[in-house]
Design a protein that fits this description.
Elements lengths: L2 H13 L4 H13 L1 H31 L9 E2 L2 E2 L2 H11 L4 H8 L6 E7 L20 E3 L2 E4 L13 E6 L12 E9 L4 H4 L4 E11 L8 E10 L1 H5 L6 H8 L2 E5 L12 E8 L6 E10 L10 E16 L7
Antiparallel strand pairs: 1-2, 3-13, 4-7, 5-6, 6-13, 7-12, 8-11, 8-13, 9-10, 9-12
Length: about 325
């Protein structure tokens, strides 16, 4: 494929006019061809210089009242787009080309939606704890999929997850104050994306609910656990939850979002985890905890707290250099 076609792809990227097919084509070429990447930087650098010269010409004209027409430039065999030039000039002036690639072409970093859940299927989660837990369904504490409530509607669609109690079938835990549901996700189809140590997942969800008198404040919970296949295969024997803590490859937790008590407002929380290359499964944990510290307060009962709009995105992000 010739450079003229590559020029058109680069210009379309900077102008924001690429189709999805063209974006994927440019992404593939820049990822797999050092020659194409070098061509990208040469053209971007040229555009940055042209933009600088164009600005200086206009500045001189404005200062002197020179009636000469403003200079025009043709690049990539089409009219130069001033906005793209400004973006290229700004970014090129920040750091060297080798470090700035991700800033110039952020849309070229592939993002894969591994999993999403709006509970529209209406399938009820299992409530017998997380041992054993299998792929394909939610399991854990007492929760249920419900429709719109008198004072609260799903974030999108007609269903959402309602948190009920901080324990599960066969085990009543009155001292518990956290209601959680879990999902096991098989990442083995994404082995290629996991090699190299640059794979990062972003786990997000929407939370909403009320805070009845004597309960709360409620803190939203999103946790990620990177697991290998050996641990997952052993989940039916022994304590799976205890094994996770001892044998997980990596984990990440987000507990910074507190419910505002406004049923008209869905609040967003997210969590990220860089995945070790040997990761084969992810365990997702979503829920809430009652942080009422009043003596004698009952904290294991929920019922007016909800989760919706869960997403898991896989992307590539270079490691931060140590020096």
């Amino acid at each position: 494929m010739n450079d003229e076609h590559l020029d058109r792809l680069i210009q379309g990227h900077l102008n924001g006019t690429l189709t999805e097919e063209e974006r994927l084509e440019l992404e593939h070429r820049l990822q797999h061809s050092a020659k194409d990447r070098q061509h990208f930087w040469e053209e971007a650098g040229t555009h940055a210089l042209i933009h600088s010269h164009f600005k200086s010409q206009l500045g001189a004209e404005n200062a002197s009242g020179d009636p000469r027409p403003a200079p025009t430039f043709r690049m990539w065999r089409s009219r130069w787009h001033p906005f793209a030039a400004a973006a290229a000039g700004l970014v090129m002036g920040l750091v060297s080309a080798s470090l700035v690639f991700g800033f110039v072409v952020p849309s070229l970093k592939p993002r894969i939606e591994v999993f999403s859940e709006n509970f529209e299927s209406g399938v009820q989660p299992k409530t017998d704890g997380i041992q054993p837990l299998d792929t394909g369904y939610w399991g854990g504490d007492f929760v249920e999929v419900v429709g719109p409530q008198p004072a609260l509607r799903p974030a999108d669609g007609t269903h959402m997850l309602r948190l009920v109690r901080a324990d599960h079938e066969g085990r009543h835990i009155p001292e518990s104050f956290s209601c959680d549901s879990f999902r096991l996700v098989d990442l083995r189809p994404y082995r290629k994306e996991l090699t190299g140590g640059e794979a990062v997942v972003r786990f997000s969800a929407l939370f909403n609910g009320l805070a009845p008198n004597g309960q709360g404040p409620y803190i939203c919970t999103l946790k990620l656990y990177a697991l290998d296949a050996a641990l997952v295969e052993d989940r039916k024997s022994g304590s799976f939850q205890a094994s996770i803590r001892k044998r997980m490859l990596a984990d990440s937790s987000c507990t910074r979002v507190q419910l505002d008590g406004d049923p008209a407002t869905w609040q967003s929380a997210d969590n990220e985890l860089r995945l070790p290359p040997e990761t084969e499964y992810l365990l997702l944990q979503v829920g809430m905890s009652d942080h009422n510290l009043q003596p004698g307060a009952q904290r294991d009962a929920f019922g007016a707290q909800f989760v919706d709009g869960i997403r898991l995105i896989l992307a590539q992000s270079p490691k931060i250099p140590l020096r």
